Amino acid sequence: MLIKKIKEEVNRIREELGMEKVDVSIVKVEERGDTLIIYTKTRTDKSIIIGPGGWVVGKLREKLGYNLIKVEDYSDKILFLERVKEIKKSYDDKVIKYLANYFLENKIYKNIRVYSTITCQYDLYIANLLNEVFDLTAILLNPPILPSRKYKKAKEFLEDRDINYIDNKKIEVNFKEFCGFLPNKLDVDGYIFTSCLKESYLKYKDRVFINFLKLFPLKFDRLNYLEFCPICIQNLNNNFKFLIKNIVDSVYWGVREPTDAAEEIVKLSRVRK
Question: What is the pTM of this model?
Answer without folding.
Answer: 0.77
